[in-house]
Specification:
Distance between the termini: 25 Å
Bound molecules: alpha-D-allopyranose, manganese (II) ion
Number of domains: 1
CATH superfamily: Divalent-metal-dependent TIM barrel enzymes
Strand order of the largest sheet: 4-5-7-9-10-11
Radius of gyration: 22 Å
Largest sheet: 6 strands, parallel
Number of strands: 11
CATH architecture: Alpha-Beta Barrel
Number of helices: 15
Helix content: 40-55%
Structural class: alpha/beta
Order of helices and strands: HHEHEHEEHEEHEEHEHEHEHHHHHH
C-alpha cells in the first residue's frame, strides 16, 4: 500500500504553519530543543510481527479485515508505518509463525522498506502440529528431558533463522510455571531452566544478545518459572555477559514500581530492553501510554539517567520494542499511537534538568524535585516529535494521513477479511 510523496507533502503543508509556530515557541523555551529533536530522529522502535493483526483474547477474536496474510505483507505494513513516522525501523519476528521461506528475499524486502530485524522470539508456549513432545507442563523446566531438549533445539533453530536475516538477539519468554501448589519443585524447575538456557546461550554468536523476559503470571496462575525481575536477573547473571533481562511493562503485579526496577537493572548493566505496552489489570497489551503515561515518563527518566551514567547510546544500546495485542482498534493505528507515545515520553525525559533534580534530592527538597519532574512531564513536546519526523522525511501527522488516505479500507480491498492464526 503506497502513499505518494505529493500527497504526503500536501498533508504536511496544511498544518505546517501551526507546527512551525509551536516549534519556534519550544525552541525559545528549551535551549537544547534541537539536540532533543536529533535524539528523537535516531530513536527507532521495533514493531512485533504479531501486532499487525487483531490479537484477540481467549474469549474470541474479531478480525477487522486487511490483515497481513504472510511475512511479506507484515514487512510491507511496518514499511508503511515507518514511511509515515520514520521511527519504526525494525521488525521483530516470532518463530515458527514467521519462518522465512527465502531469507535473502525477506532480508532484501525489509531493507527496501528501511527495516532491520530486531530480536527473534521463540515459542515454547504452544504445541505446533506434528510436534513430538508437548509443552503442556512446561518447556525448559519440564521434568521430561526429551521435552527440554526439544525446546532447546527450537531456540537454537530460531537463532539460525535470525542469523540468516541479520538479527542479533534472541528473546526467550517462557510461559513455564505451575497452576497449583505442589505441582512442581521450584528448585528443580529453576535448575532445569537454567541448564536449558545455558545450552541455548552456548549457541549464541559472539555479537548476539539473549533477553530473558519475565512475567508475573499467565498462562500459569500459581507460579511462573521466570516470574519477576529478580529471577530474570539471576538467570541472566548466571548465563554470562551476553544475557540480559527484558522488561515487558505488562508483566508486573499491580502497582509494581517499574521505574525502580529499570533503574537497578540498568545500574547492574543487565537491562537488555523493553516490550512497551500499557495495562490496567495485567498483561492487557494496551496501547503504550494510554493508561499510565506518567509511569512511562518516569521509566524514561530512569533510562535517560541510567544510560547517561553508563555512557550508553540511547538509540542502539538497548532493545526498544512494542509488544501489544489489538482487539478493538485497527492494529496499524494503534502502533502509530504507541510509537508516538514512546517518543513523547522520551522527549519529556530529555527535558528533565538532572543537575537541578540531583541538587533538590541532595537537600531533601521533595517539592522541588517533584516540580522538576512534573514541569518536564507537563510540557507539550509533540512539536519536537513532529519536527524529528519531518526532518527524517516522515509526516507531520501520521495518524491523520493514514486515516485520510483510508489505508485500512485499501488493505481490506486488497486482502479482504483475513484470519491469521498468530494472534497472541
Ligand atoms: C506474550 C507474552 C510475552 C511475549 C509475547 C511474544 O506475554 O509478552 O513477549 O507474547 O512472545 O505477550
Ligand atoms: Mn513481551
Ligand atoms: Mn506479554
Amino acid at each position: 500500500m503506497q502513499i505518494d510523496q505529493n500527497k504526503i507533502d500536501g498533508y504536511n503543508s496544511q498544518s505546517l504553519r501551526k507546527h512551525e509556530r509551536a516549534l519556534t515557541y519550544l525552541q525559545g523555551e528549551i535551549p537544547h530543543a534541537d539536540d532533543i529533536i536529533q535524539q528523537l530522529g535516531a530513536f527507532q522502535i521495533a514493531i512485533p510481527s504479531w501486532a499487525l493483526g487483531t490479537g484477540g483474547t481467549r474469549f474470541g477474536r474479531f478480525p477487522a479485515g486487511g490483515e497481513p496474510r504472510n511475512l511479506e505483507e507484515k514487512i510491507e505494513d511496518i514499511g508503511l508505518l515507518h514511511r509515515l513516522n520514520r521511527a519504526s525501523g525494525a521488525i521483530s519476528l516470532h518463530i515458527p509463525w514467521d519462518i522465512p521461506e527465502d531469507p535473502a528475499h525477506i532480508r532484501a524486502l525489509a531493507a527496501a522498506h528501511g527495516l532491520k530485524f530486531d530480536a527473534m522470539n521463540s515459542n515454547t508456549f504452544q504445541d505446533q502440529p506434528g510436534q513430538a513432545h508437548s509443552y503442556k507442563f512446561g518447556s525448559l523446566q519440564n521434568v521430561n528431558r526429551d521435552v527440554r531438549k526439544q525446546a532447546i533445539e527450537h531456540n537454537i533453530e530460531v537463532i539460525r533463522h535470525g542469523i540468516a536475516l541479520g538479527s542479533e538477539s534472541l528473546t526467550v519468554w517462557l510461559s513455564d510455571g505451575s497452576c497449583f501448589p505442589g505441582q512442581l519443585s521450584f528448585r528443580k524447575a529453576f535448575e532445569n531452566t537454567l541448564e536449558g538456557l545455558q545450552e541455548i546461550y552456548a549457541a549464541l554468536p559472539d555479537n548476539w544478545k539473549m533477553f530473558v523476559e519475565y512475567k508475573a503470571f499467565e498462562p500459569n496462575f500459581y507460579s511462573t518459572t521466570v516470574g519477576d525481575w529478580g529471577q530474570s536477573y539471576l538467570y541472566a547473571s548466571k548465563l554470562g555477559n551476553k544475557a540480559y533481562t527484558l522488561v515487558d511493562l505488562g508483566h508486573h503485579l499491580p502497582n509494581a514500581n517499574i521505574e525502580q526496577i529499570v533503574s537497578l537493572l540498568l545500574m547492574e548493566g543487565k537491562l537488555g530492553g523493553f516490550h512497551f505496552n500499557d495495562s490496567k489489570y495485567g498483561d492487557d497489551d494496551l496501547t503504550v501510554g494510554s493508561i499510565k503515561p506518567y509511569q512511562l515518563f518516569l521509566i524514561f527518566c530512569e533510562l535517560v539517567d541510567g544510560m547517561n551514567a553508563r555512557n550508553m547510546q540511547h538509540a542502539t544500546d538497548l532493545g526498544w520494542m512494542i509488544d501489544a495485542s489489538h482487539n478493538v482498534k485497527d492494529p496499524l493505528e494503534d502502533l502509530l499511537q504507541s510509537v508516538e507515545a514512546i517518543q513523547i515520553a522520551y522527549a519529556q525525559a530529555l527535558l528533565v534538568d538532572r543537575a537541578k533534580l540531583t541538587a533538590a534530592q541532595e537537600r531533601n527538597d521533595v517539592v522541588a524535585a517533584q516540580e522538576i519532574l512534573q514541569q518536564a512531564y507537563r510540557t507539550d513536546v509533540r512539536p519536537l516529535v513532529a519536527e524529528a519526523r519531518l526532518r527524517s522525511g516522515g509526516v507531520l501527522d501520521p495518524l491523520g494521513v493514514y486515516r485520510g488516505e483510508q489505508v485500512r479500507a485499501g488493505l481490506i480491498r486488497e486482502r479482504g477479511l483475513v484470519t491469521i492464526a498468530t494472534g497472541l
